[in-house]
Amino acid sequence: MGNHLTYQHGTQLGEHLELSLVIPVFNEAATVDLFIARITDVFKAEALVSLEMVFVNDGSTDTTLELLLQRQSTDPRIRIVDLSRNFGKEAALTAGLEAVTGQVVVPIDVDLQDPPEVILEMIARWREGYEVVLGHRVSRRNDSWAKQTSANWFYRLHNKISDQPLPENVGDFRLMDRCVVEALQTLPESRRFMKGLFAWVGFRTTHVDYERPERVAGESKFNGWRLWNFALEGITSFSTDPLKVWTYLGVCVSLVSFSFAIFIVLRTLFTGVDVPGYASLMVAVTFLGGLQLIGIGVLGEYLGRTYIESKRRPVYLVRRVYDAKD
Ligand code: UDP
Ligand code: MG
Q: In CATH terms, is domain 17-226+314-322 a member of 3.90.180.10?
């Protein structure tokens, strides 16, 4: 028996619509004002859209929270979920998605790398009956070469070995109907690779293209090591192939060594005992040692994740929610 979702896609063309933006922020004092101004600008002509901005403060150590509270005092569209520490973007998104009230929800970066104008196009597609409208980046030329190549490799590997392919060049920026958000909430895992979860829930999906600009201000929070771990998370969350491959590798290596053993026995029978062989011995020993360590490492990745998951800790902790009326 699967889960049954109660909500039905409803709104027709031209009807009033409640839109919730989910905006994770981590040390973004430099960008918050620019973001709010741009959103205000984009939506000021949209009489049919009532807007809610749910900022999730992901343990910022700068003045982001104070700034948001100040803006909230004059702007009732702003709601703030203040997390107790930095939990990472995935957890912050999860927190935001659980707090939203709108009919349609759009997770969006505060650095304006996800252009708010695109949301209007997304809404138009949603009104056509789609439940998910992905923001598809037509080019990544504003990303560094290293980020582009590693992203390419990641998608290729991920889509080869996991059951649920990820759409390429699609980030967290997307419009989701309420039913999709409710579906996401039924997923119980505490390690949340959002892109993968988004893809896993499915639903009627389309996309709109956009050009991804550079960050307006401040600095990226994702460096190489963080991205590598993010990629590991993605693969281990959606595929167990890296665990299984060792069986086959093991079988191949054993077959090779078995043939080699037969060869040595026969050679010894025919040509007598032959002491030299240090090089081949050493190679075999170190090679197999290396293989085994890698295998154990992969086991460790999964075991570690299973361990963390088995603790059933919450994905995030909220210090306080600030609604506009507070
Ligand atoms: N972010 C977050 N928690 C983190 C890291 C990032 O909430 O631990 C937010 C950040 O404030 C921004 C969004 O996630 O709104 C994307 O971050 P960033 O622009 O640094 O990533 P990039 O665009 O470089 O991948
Ligand atoms: Mg960014």
A: no
Angle between helices 64-72 and 32-43 (to 10 degrees): 30
User: Does 142 sit in the ligand 1 pocket, CB within 6 Å?
Assistant: no
DSSP state of 112: S
Q: How far is the CA of 110 from the centre of ligand 1 (A)?
A: 8
Ligand number with the minimum distance to the CA of 108: 1
CA distance 176 to 97: 10
Give the distance (Å) from ligand 2 centre to CA of residue 111: 6
What is the percent of the chain where pLDDT is above 70?
94
How far apart are alpha carbons 38 and 232 in whole angstroms?
35
- Average pLDDT score, the chain: 85
Q: How confident is the model at residue 38 (pLDDT cuts 50, 70, 90)?
A: very high
Angle between helices 117-127 and 32-43 (to 10 degrees): 50
